[in-house]
Each structure stands twice: as C-alpha cells, then as structure tokens.
Specification:
By secondary structure, the protein is mainly α. The protein has one domain: ABC transporter involved in vitamin B12 uptake, BtuC. The chain is about 75% helix and about 0% strand. It is built from 14 helices and two strands. It is globular.
Amino acid sequence: MAGTERLTKINFVIYVGLMFLITIIIALFGVSVGSVRISFFKILGILFGEAKDTVLQKIIWEIRLPRILMAIAVGGGLSVAGAVFQAILQNPLAEPYILGISSGGSFGAVLSFVLGLSFFGTQILAFAGALIVVLIVFLLGRRFGEIEPGVLLLSGVMVGAFFGSGILIMTSMLDTSLRTAIFWLIGSLSFAETKNLYFVLPVTIFATVILIFNSYKYNVLAIGSEGAKQLGINTNRVKNIAYIVSSLLVGSVVSISGIIGFVGLIVPHVSRMLFGQDYRIIIPSSFFLGASFLILADTLARSVIAPAELPVGAVTAIIGAPVFIYLLKKKFQY
C-alpha cells in the first residue's frame, strides 16, 4: 500500500502506469466480447490499419470502441467525483448522486421525453437540470461563506427528493418513451455515439486533471478546516472549486449515461484499500479503477442476454451492493 508519507514520484508513476496498462487490457477485452467475438490480434490489426475487414471495422470503430471510451469517461468521471466529494465532505458515504445532481439531470432528461425532443435536446436539458441542482445545493450548503459538509449533504438529499418526485410525476405521463426513460433512470451506455464522446470525454479529462493538481490539498482537509487554515490552505476556495468542478463533471456524465449508481461510492473505497489514504494517488487510481469497473460491468450487461442488453446501472448495483457491505464489515478508517 502507498501511505501518504511513502508516496514518491517513482511510486506514483509505477502505480499510474500499471493501472493504465490494466485499463487498456480490459478495454481490449471489452471490444472483443459481444454477439460477434473478435480476437485480440484481429482488434489490434484493425486499430492499427493492418487488417482489412469491412464488417469488423464497422463493429469496432462505430459500435464497440465508442462504447468502451464512453465507459472510461463515465466510470472514471464518477469515481473521481466520488473520491473528491468524500474528501471535501469528510464523509465516506458521500458520492455524486447523494447530492441530488443525478436527480436534476434525470429530471431534465425525462422532461425532454415528455416534450418529445431529440437525443441532443435530452442532453441539453439533462445537463441544464444538473447545473440547476448544483447551484441550488451550493447556495443552500454554505454557512458563513464556506461549504458546510453536513448542510450540503442534507440539502442535496432534500433537493434530490424534490426533483425525484417530479420525475415520478412525469414518467406517469409517458407512453412510448417510457422504456427509454426507465433505461435512463437505471443508467445505460446504449446511448454511446462518437459525437457524444466529443463532449463528455474532454470534460472528464479536463476536470480530472484539475482535481489531481489540487489533490494534495484534500490531504490537508482531512485534519479539519481549522487545522488546514493554520497550514495556509484557503479551505473555502479549495472546497468551492472541488465541488463545482466535480459537480460539472457529474452533470456532463449524467447527460449522456443517465444514473449509474455505486461507481462513485465503491471505487474510491477500493482505491483506499489498495493504495492508502493519500489523495494524490486516490484520485488518479479512482479514475482507472472506475473506468475498468464500468467496462467490465457494461461488457456483462450487453452479453448476458445478447443480442438484447441489461441497463449497466442494474449490473453496477448488483455488484456494488455486496461489495460495499463487505467493505463496511472490514471497517476501514477514513
């Protein structure tokens, strides 16, 4: 394990490099599995332009690879946001959706289904709904000009419940779009297209880089706001930036995939179990672990009842719930 005091640049490079390599291997596995099995060598040949097969090229470039990249963006983004929320709120149960962001995004998405908008319209309304909740919770969760963890969490739960009731009302008004709405509310990567990656992938990478650069400050927050201030950390600024960047990250993800639960809650815990308490390694490791986890979950979701597929959010919940119970039994300290 990498404790806070033992993390060196060499260790950091080794850990990140190893996790990157594992993620690539898992991604290749995800591309190979499906109703049509494709060998690793065939995949590499097509990716590097050394093999010519029109059918397989279309399957890889237009269907499976965009979906794998979407899983990386969504899984990595949710995991990083979960790790940061747990850091700034000092709560191991904090995760992206408990703050109501997903409810806002889902409210916007279901509203678009009621209005009969295109998928692009759904993305816009989902992102707008998430931003509205981010703003409301941010304003309600501040005390004396600084984010108060307990108040922020309760505000997120209440605002999420409010928007959740609106979602239930609107779903009762749907007919032909009901199945799409259910898939969105459970979470699915079936909406993955290359054009959607142009939005969510850059946002995920940019936000993750910002949070990694600030990760050493989250270590100081662990001693409490007063202690952090005495060490020269502007806790108000750190918390505000972390909350806003992480929330925008979650909002962009929700606008594409819907609600995929447990990823942002479970993965940071697993990262701590493997690498210790240092957020300088927890955040990047959470990205790669979350990406790998969602690739595997989505591969399972589209393989179990192929050619049909399960919502990946249902798979992550089935896997995540017992894993989290196990972690609770281990009684990790954060």
